[in-house]
Amino acid sequence: MTNTNNNYSIDNGNINQEHNTETSDKTILACIDGSNVTQSVCDYAAWYANELNLSVSLLHVIDVPKSYRHDLSGAIGMDSRHSLMQELSSLDEQTARIANQHGEALLQDAKSHILISYPQANVYSHLRRSKLLPAIEHHADESRIIVLGRRGKDHQNDYVNIGSQIESVVRAVSRPILVCSDGFITPESFMVAFDGSETSKKAVDIICKNELAKNLVGHIVMVGHKDTINETELYKAQKKMSDAGFNITAHLIDSTKMDYPDVVTALTAFRNDNNISMFIIGAYGHSKWRRFFVGSTTTKLLTKTTAPVILLR
């Protein structure tokens, strides 16, 4: 990978690094906001990109509040309104300028951090005035995976908060989402949460196409009744991954005998007991899978672990 310099252009209020689209096809999109988890986002994105010889696209979104200007008609005299409008307009411009400078500084610092560990990395920068979701959607087609921090800047000291926009991004974007927390540890293993549904089978199919995951030790884990149907579905999935070149072991946790209050607790306990680097789960599916991972259950899993979680749809 070849190192590039940051060159910014302004297009419809968005500031984007100019680059050749041929070199940027399928990058790792890392969304940064200056919170404590930003460094971890950069580290996981850089690790993923380095393993697959891809570039990293850093995205920082400026969500500037609405103008301070209000409807002053009838409140005070014409001359006073005109003077205040000029001052408020100047304040808006100053706020926008400072936000741009801060965003550029965050992107430059993030790029420098990546290049310390991966000096050969090809890093692009995107600074956009937008909401997070439309900004991500703008870059989704050219992204292999999207990396988000578990906690946003506004909630960086709240352990249970995963970031208010994660669920909306996962629901709207078809790309895999890697949600990470503070502290990067080079992944050596992963576990797939599996329940035999069509969504979980689709997740297995997606993972089978991932060359990076083949370099890791894999576990496919089902929590449920220990019966013939579940055992058959689980081991069929294991065989599919094994045939695809994965080092994968299957585990069926008997829900009738486990000492845990719910499935999420059982999964996180298994991960902790076996020192597994990351989770891979299907999100927002149908049937049992939907009831299992939809809404608050996904949130519960994300908040009960500090391990990175890859969400697949």
Automatic annotation (TrEMBL):
What is this protein's name?
Universal stress protein family protein
Matches recorded under InterPro entries: Universal_stress_UspA, UspA
Recorded superkingdom: Bacteria
**Can you tell me which residues the record assigns to a coiled coil?**
none
According to its UniProt record, which protein family does this protein belong to? Belongs to the universal stress protein A family.
- Which CDD domains does its entry note? USP-like
Pfam families membership: Usp
Q: Where is the UspA domain?
A: 26-180, 190-313
Q: Which species?
A: Psychrobacter piechaudii
